[in-house]
């Protein structure tokens, strides 16, 4: 079992989207509804916070060093050095009760991000978008999920994983790195509350897919076929996304959220914080958004 310890007691409402920046040697992550972007070193030092003007669903690293940001129903570019934020694109056709959620840069150099119904009673009208480095938006999948989540790509760039944390399911696609084209959608797993509804995901160098079981306090490792080959307990009931960090990508960090249930929060008061563990397997290296 992985041995998770506390990296930083940040207690985000909804901590999400951890992204390792190998140039700055910091981890970026977001607190969705604060809303804020954070950065921190893996020893817990130099914690910085930038307040955002709208709900921030996810982030990705750009080749320029800037961050591409999913802000409510828009795409923005944030420069953490200059502390500047510029709106790049609006996403057409998303109703006012939708927002962007999980996003990640794919092997094609584009930022992929999904939408979700943010109402308590959700409808399966979430879509998946591709935003290239010039800000051109393509709706790749339309009305496929309740809460788009779990984006991750295999190390060879030929497989994409996508989940619906309210479905709750995980799909696998064949992926063309040159064009970003998806093919052969395959439902590899349908989960439940006990095994863990699939939240954020990441791939390792051996072709396995890691998914935070947000309802079960577990980090699950799936085979390409959807079998849970490992299931690791974590210190809080609602982990949200894993990220492989460090020079060798063998440091595993997870974000988490604060549960609404007062009893659950009292039992795990550090919910919403960052947790860290050494991993026996390296993560798949994540591409940078082609903005430069």
Describe this structure in words.
By secondary structure, this protein is mainly β. It has one domain (5-278): TolB, C-terminal domain (Neuraminidase, 6 Propeller), CATH 2.120.10. It has one helix at residues 262-267; strands spanning 5-8, 15-21, 26-31, 36-40, 48-51, 56-61, 67-71, 74-79, 84-90, 98-105, 111-117, 126-131, 137-145, 148-153, 159-164, 169-175, 182-190, 198-203, 209-213, 218-222, 228-233, 239-245, 251-256, 274-278. The strands form six sheets. The chain has a four-stranded antiparallel sheet, with no helix packed on it. A hairpin with a 7-residue loop joins β4 and β5 (48-51). The radius of gyration is 17 Å and the shape is globular.
Main attributes?
single chain; 292 residues; mainly beta; Neuraminidase; four-stranded antiparallel beta sheet; 1 helix; 24 strands; 51% strand; globular
List the helices and strands and how they pair.
Elements: E1 5-8, E2 15-21, E3 26-31, E4 36-40, E5 48-51, E6 56-61, E7 67-71, E8 74-79, E9 84-90, E10 98-105, E11 111-117, E12 126-131, E13 137-145, E14 148-153, E15 159-164, E16 169-175, E17 182-190, E18 198-203, E19 209-213, E20 218-222, E21 228-233, E22 239-245, E23 251-256, H1 262-267, E24 274-278
Antiparallel strand pairs: 1-24, 2-3, 3-4, 4-5, 6-7, 7-8, 8-9, 10-11, 11-12, 12-13, 14-15, 15-16, 16-17, 18-19, 19-20, 20-21, 22-23, 23-24
- Count structural domains: 1
Identify the CATH homologous superfamily.
TolB, C-terminal domain
Helix content: under 10%
Determine the strand fraction and express it as a percent band: over 45%
Low-confidence segments = none
Q: Main sheet, how many strands, which sense, barrel?
A: 4 strands, antiparallel
Which class of secondary structure composition applies to the elements?
mainly beta
Q: Classify the fold: give the CATH topology.
A: Neuraminidase
If strands are numbered along the chain, what order do they take across the biggest sheet? 1-24-23-22
CATH architectural group: 6 Propeller
The coarse silhouette is globular
Mean pLDDT: 97
Assembly state of the chains shown = single chain
Task: Count every helix, treating DSSP H or I runs of 4 or more residues as helices.
Answer: 1
Number of strands: 24
User: From the alpha-carbon coordinates, what is the Rg to the nearest angstrom?
Assistant: 17 Å
Question: Which H/E pattern describes the elements?
Answer: EEEEEEEEEEEEEEEEEEEEEEEHE
CATH class: Mainly Beta
Family: Belongs to the SMP-30/CGR1 family.
Protein name: SMP-30/gluconolactonase/LRE family protein
Cofactor: Zn(2+)
GO molecular function, one term: gluconolactonase activity
């Amino acid at each position: 079992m992985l041995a998770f310890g506390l990296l930083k007691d940040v207690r985000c409402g909804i901590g999400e989207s951890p992204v390792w920046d190998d140039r700055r040697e910091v981890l970026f992550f977001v607190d969705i509804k604060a809303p804020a972007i954070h950065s921190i070193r893996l020893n817990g030092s130099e914690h910085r916070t930038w307040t955002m003007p709208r709900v921030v669903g996810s982030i990705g690293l750009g080749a320029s060093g800037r961050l591409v940001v999913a802000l409510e129903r828009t795409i923005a570019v944030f420069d953490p050095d200059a502390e500047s934020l510029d709106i790049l694109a609006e996403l057409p056709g998303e109703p006012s009760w939708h927002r962007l959620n999980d996003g990640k840069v794919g092997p094609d150099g584009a930022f992929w991000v999904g939408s979700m119904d943010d109402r308590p009673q959700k409808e399966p009208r979430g879509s998946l978008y591709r935003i290239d480095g010039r800000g051109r938006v393509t709706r790749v999948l339309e009305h496929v999920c309740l809460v788009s989540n779990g984006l991750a790509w295999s190390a060879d760039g030929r497989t994409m994983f996508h989940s619906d944390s309210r479905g709750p399911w995980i799909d696998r696609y064949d992926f063309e790195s040159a064009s970003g084209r998806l093919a052969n959608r395959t439902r590899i797993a349908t989960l439940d509350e006990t095994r863990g509804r699939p939240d954020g995901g990441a791939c390792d160098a051996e072709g396995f897919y890691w998914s935070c079981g947000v309802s079960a306090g577990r980090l699950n490792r799936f085979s390409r076929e959807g079998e849970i080959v490992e299931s690791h307990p974590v210190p809080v009931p609602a982990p949200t996304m894993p990220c492989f960090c460090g020079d060798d990508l063998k440091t595993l960090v997870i974000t988490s959220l604060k549960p609404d249930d007062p009893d659950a929060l009292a039992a795990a008061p550090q919910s919403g914080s960052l947790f860290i563990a050494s991993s026996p397997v390296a993560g798949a290296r994540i591409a940078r958004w082609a903005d430069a």
